[in-house]
Amino acid sequence: MDRRDEFLLKMYEQMFNDIDRHHKIVWQVIGVLVGSFAFIALAEKGFIPIDIAVAVIVLLALWVIAHVYDSNYWYNRNLVIISNIERQFLQSSDLKDIQYYFGEHRDKNAVQTSLKIQLYIAYGIILVFLLYHVCIPPNTYC
User: Fold this and answer.
1) Of the candidates 133, 96, 111, the residue with the CA atom closest to the CA atom of residue 65
2) Where are the domains of the chain?
3) Residues in Cβ contact with 105 at an 8 Å cutoff, skipping those fewer than 6 apart
4) Distance between CA 100 and CA 63 in Å, rounded?
5) What's the CA gap between 101 and 70, in Å, rounded?
6) What are the residues whose beta carbons fall under 8 Å from the beta carbon of 81, sequence distance 6 or more?
């Protein structure tokens, strides 16, 4: 194995590490978002206004959405690099025998399924808390 092959294999390994790191980060910020529900308890106890509590939760949900899109960008980027490295080592017959992913790239802006779930969680939280805010007294529009 020459230096180029060693370099490509190290880079291949690092791309998977980066993908894993970005997935973990998004789940961690989801945890922060869920923890922010404590603001509702503070509002119900009268420590902070409900407007502030809902605003903080919505802002944190938007922060989660930004992390999801950022992580998805890095996922797609790294997957392209991984596929290109695989093309250096695999043969065209391996498209059938081993795996077909290195043959062509995913759609440019396709969102990975696990990241889509996190997006839906964040959008759902925004919707629930905005409805909660609108439907509680004195704003009983529901």
Assistant:
1) 111
2) 3-135
3) 79, 80, 83
4) 35
5) 22
6) 11, 15
Separation in Å, CA 63 to CA 33, 37, 68, 84: 9, 15, 9, 32
pLDDT band at 102; cut points 50, 70, 90: low
DSSP 25-73: HHHHHHHHHHHTTHHHHHHHTTSS-HHHHHHHHHHHHHHHHHHHHHHHH
Residue type, 69: Y
- Say how many C-beta atoms besides its own lie within 10 A of residue 119's C-beta: 16
Q: What residues contact residue 87 under an 8 Å CB cut-off, 6+ apart? A: 102
Residue 101 has pLDDT above 60, yes or no: no
Give me the residue label for tokens 């017959």: 93
pLDDT at 15: 78
Instruction: Name the pTM for this structure.
Output: 0.76
